[in-house]
Design goal:
alpha+beta; Butyryl-CoA Dehydrogenase, subunit A, domain 2; Butyryl-CoA Dehydrogenase, subunit A, domain 3; 3 domains; three-stranded mixed sheet; 11 helices; binds coenzyme a persulfide; acyl-CoA dehydrogenase activity; EC 1.3.8.10
């Protein structure tokens, strides 16, 4: 067993750290306030290869491994979780979904553009009444021979407004349950495909979240991913990898808040000494560091499982469950260590605390992760 990173991994991590410090940090508070993320930053992330990290270079990707992916995700998330969720969705849901399960024609047409950042993708599973209960899809895709007709609504879609390519899950045959669900590739601008207003959110406010509406959208059969009825398994398999990305995001949010708290505690004085010298603060730092390191081990293990070709359904669920808990608890502690300053935007920790909450909700709530883990344990 070797816990050290390779030289290449260190270079990749440092490049992401440098990008986050020089490009993402300036303006992060303003972007959070304005709920905006500029196209220029998306383009730069594309140029650095951050939008197709694990995609084969023959489809325009960077050809890196999952360890590299989580290192990049952690560094971006320390500074700007709105940027990192865009990276996570594009990489582990959209690009991975197409590369693993799309056919050659679909890869040439869509993946090559998504992997370079020429266009951005969105993954559309959640509905007003089907978030955790993902088999209860109300969006319908009626088979009309050479095409399908889609009707329904999707909620809380990351990259919802700015994406050009949408992977949409819909019910074709209700009587077949999870085996009657299909996954489709939709393009922005298809007649009947409408993008609703942007959501006003607690956290990751720079990220672009929308409701989507499908009214008799005609989708060619060639845009179905996999065989008829593969859509639910497609969603589950893809989300397993997505959860590694969100676990790494949660880890980065926690680590970012911890680093700020450590620095602040060495500068701020109270009762005649730096506050890190008070045991009340020192013990908080010890707990934060220990649990963040434990989260990092789980995230790395899940990424390693993916790289090894092992099943990672359980390890990704464990990583997301634990890292998101650590992110929520320790961003609260980071605000506490900052005292009054923690409550104002200038010190960044209040934003990280708001950003942490979503990691316990999206791509499967913490309760769903416990279902996945416990079912895995019982099945053996
Ligand atoms: N890989 C492959 N197949 C899978 C799978 C996986 N990871 N998970 C489930 N399946 C298969 C099952 O094997 C089953 O197939 P069979 O009918 O052939 O046995 C089928 O899919 C249905 O699975 P299951 O019966 O477990 O479905 P449930 O309705 O009980 O739901 C959970 C299972 C809760 C785990 C699933 O609905 C889920 O993950 N929900 C959360 C979805 C989510 O993350 N939402 C957030 C939106 S994305 S931001």
């Amino acid at each position: 067993m070797d816990f050290s990173l390779t030289e290449e991994h260190i270079m990749i991590r440092d490049a992401a750290r440098d990008f986050a410090q020089t490009e993402l940090l300036p303006g992060v508070i303003e972007r959070d306030n304005a709920q905006k993320f500029p196209e220029s930053l998306v383009r730069k992330m594309g140029e650095l290869g951050f939008l197709g990290i694990m995609v084969d270079p023959k489809y325009g990707g960077s050809g890196m491994d999952a360890i590299s992916y989580v290192l990049i995700m952690e560094e971006l998330s320390k500074i700007d979780a709105s940027a990192s969720v865009m990276v996570s969705v594009n990489n582990s849901l959209v690009c991975y979904g197409l590369e693993a399960y799309g056919n050659e024609e679909q890869k040439q047409k869509y993946l090559t553009k998504l992997a370079t950042g020429e266009c951005i993708g969105a993954f559309c599973l959640s509905e007003p009444e089907a978030g955790s209960d993902a088999t209860s899809q109300k969006t319908t895709a009626i088979d009309k021979g050479d095409h399908y007709i889609l009707n329904g609504t999707k909620n809380w879609i990351t990259n919802g407004g700015r994406a050009e390519v949408y992977l949409v899950i819909a019910q074709t045959d209700k009587h077949k349950g999870s085996h009657g669900i299909n996954a489709f590739i939709l393009e922005k601008g298809m007649p009947g495909f409408d993008i609703g207003p942007k959501e006003d959110k607690l956290g990751i406010r720079g990220s672009d979240t929308h409701t989507l509406q499908f009214n008799d959208v005609k989708v060619p059969k060639s845009n179905r991913i996999g065989e008829d009825g593969f859509g639910f398994r497609f969603a589950m398999k893809t989300l397993s990898g997505g959860r590694i990305g969100i676990a790494a995001q949660a880890l980065g949010i926690a680590a970012g808040a911890y680093e700020l708290a450590l620095k602040y505690s060495k500068e701020r004085k109270a009762f005649g000494t730096e506050i890190c010298n008070h045991q009340a603060i020192a013990f908080k730092l010890a707990d934060m560091h220990t649990e963040i390191e434990a989260a990092r081990m789980l995230v790395m293990k899940a990424a390693w499982d993916k790289d090894q070709g092992n099943n990672y359904d359980m390890s990704s669920a464990m990583a997301k469950l634990y890292a998101s808990k650590v992110a929520m608890e320790h961003t609260v502690e980071a605000v506490q260590i900052h005292g009054g300053n923690g409550f104002v935007k200038e010190y960044h920790v209040e934003r990280l605390m708001r950003d942490a909450k979503i990691t316990q909700i999206y791509e499967g709530t913490s309760e769903i992760q416990k279902i996945v883990i416990s079912r895995g344990l019982i099945k053996g």
